[in-house]
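SAMPLE LOG
Freezer: B-3
Tube label: C17
Construct: single chain, 455 aa
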Amino acid sequence: MKNSRPLRKLFFLAETLSAVLFFVLLAMLPAANAASPDEEKKQSLQAQIEALEREAAEIDTRLQETKKESTTLSREVSIFNSEIKKRELEQRRLGLAIRQAGVDIATKAVKVEETIRGVERNRQILANNIRRLYAYDQENLVVVLAKNASISSFFRVVDTIRALQANARDLVEDLRASRVQLEQEKEELEEFRSEQESLKALLEIEKRNMELQRVEKDRLLQITKGKESIFQNLLSAKKLDISGLKTQLFYLERTGVTAEDAVRFASLAAERTGIRPAFLLALLEVETGRRFEGEEVTVGTNLGTGSWRADMKPNQHAAFLAITNKLNLDPDKMPVSARPCAKSVRERIGPGKPCGYGWGGAMGPAQFIPTTWLLFEEKVARITGHNPANPWNIEDAFTASALFLAESGAAARTEAGEIRAAKTYLSGRPSCSSYSCRAYASAIISIASRIERII
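STRUCTURE (predicted):
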């Protein structure tokens, strides 16, 4: 009986809440309209990307036809020219995709802020409602009856209280839903930022990729002096061109893995797992290149700049300590990849906090995170005879990567299979359709074709 008077004020609160929600929704309409120019910009960028993709597909068709021809100097020059043009188009596409990701980031950031404001508004309204309901609840039923001239008006107050209680429950549910939405939007925002950072890293790799194509072409013409006979003599010699290979494996060499060791252990791992050595080398080169920050090596090899305490995601700590314990290694002395943000940012925010688009903590030249390494540890040990397997050992690391790629489609030794494997290595999904996945796979296939010619 004590609950009846609170209900009258609850009715007032319900009307107030309805009015507030109406104006909130009204305020959101201009924001929705303001987003449309961004959507138009995205569509324009997408149209430009698709046009470049069609142009690249035409070049690729001609390139595949050229590769079927007998091996001559003019054929090799034609292949170089087509590859250089493809790399130019890829750079332009990456530039557009980076801008597109920037639009996504800006739009999602606005939505996150709107959701935060909405949650705070609803929280304040709910708190205010609870305070008023509590005040109403302090009046007993006799007082409520005295303030209402008729029984019907009394029961209207009771009905109003019930309605307000229902509205309060709905508001609580809305708050719960909004918090879930906010977490999802924050995750999506981080994904957009991660995509953009990945695209920027791939753009740098593509710039180097294209420049290498030009250098190789000029070098070939210089060595052969444009004469077919000299070119054919080079082909028949079939010597491993270490200087050319060093050029292709620029990033791997910067981490302390020599070109000779890279070829040796990639060939061994590829033979054991049934994949192409050139594909494995190309993937590790691109994967390493993505971890460069200007000229600073951030990958987890002997020159890695990260530490497990500062840069590794906490849910990886147990697996990392298990790995180092088996190997009798001091975990504090084992390098891992640094968090993906500038060194100055890492120093400013301090250790143990994510930055950029997440965490570092990958181990060795093949960049395995601890929990993934444990999935392949026993298989690697059976193949290499190193028990336990060591992610910082080149042979073990290359073998683990080769196993991963073989199981992901590279064992088919076809371009389609290798593209699936590359996408899986990057994202965990062979069907990944994001632009970073496609650009990552494209760069690997391009570099693999050049390494194939050398080895």
